[in-house]
Amino acid sequence: MLSKKIQTALNNQILEETYASHYYLSMASWCDQSGLHGSAQFFYRHSQTEKDHMLKLFRYVNDAGGHALVAAVKEPPRQFKSLAQVFELTLEHERHVTKSINALVETCLADKDYSTFNFLQWYVAEQHEEERLFQYILDLIKITGLEGRGLFLIDREIAKLPESAAAKNS
Length: 170
Ligand code: OFO
Fold this sequence. Notes:
Layout: H1 4-33, H2 37-63, H3 83-110, H4 114-144, H5 149-160, H6 165-168
Helix pairs in contact: 1-2, 1-3, 2-5, 3-4, 4-5
The structure holds hydroxy diiron-OXO moiety (OFO).
């Protein structure tokens, strides 16, 4: 049975994952509007990945006897300056989510909730992979550049990237 404290912390993380899903969906839309259709496909997929992260938490809360909540999230930004800025923001956002997961893990340990602690290890590993993925894309952008054909080539490469591209390319 989840304590009130852990239940609230997990519901807050559900909100974080929902916001991440909306944020990446907004990025997908901006990419589509900007003719960056490969990157748009990548962000549509990644938005769905974040929704899956949210649902995994949602089900866990209910399965563990708690009450998973569907709360409102703020609207994400609509406009971005460039593809490079989009990926800088994604890495920044993933680092923020990592901090949030780590804080949640610490709360579970302090509360002696070893079952939720164990469940959260999947998220700890996932965050590591996601930070590597976005760092990999930023490195690719730095090497190729976004001038002329560079933008076209990067967009095409990003479309092909699986979720675990960073792991496969290291
Ligand atoms: Fe982007 O990560 Fe969810 O957890």
